[in-house]
Amino acid sequence: MSKSLQQLAERRFPEMIEDLMLVALGSWADHDWHTFDRQEVNCTAQLYRWLRIAKRGSPQFVYLNVELEYLNLTPAMLAGEESVVNAQRPDLSISIGETGIHVECKRLLTSGPWCHHYVHKGIQRFVSSSYGANEQQGMMVGYIQQATLDGLLGSVNGFVEAHPMMGSGHQLATAQPPASYGSRHRSHHVRTSDVPIDLSHYWVLLGESLTQAD
Question: Domain of life, per the record (predicted)?
Answer without folding.
Answer: Bacteria
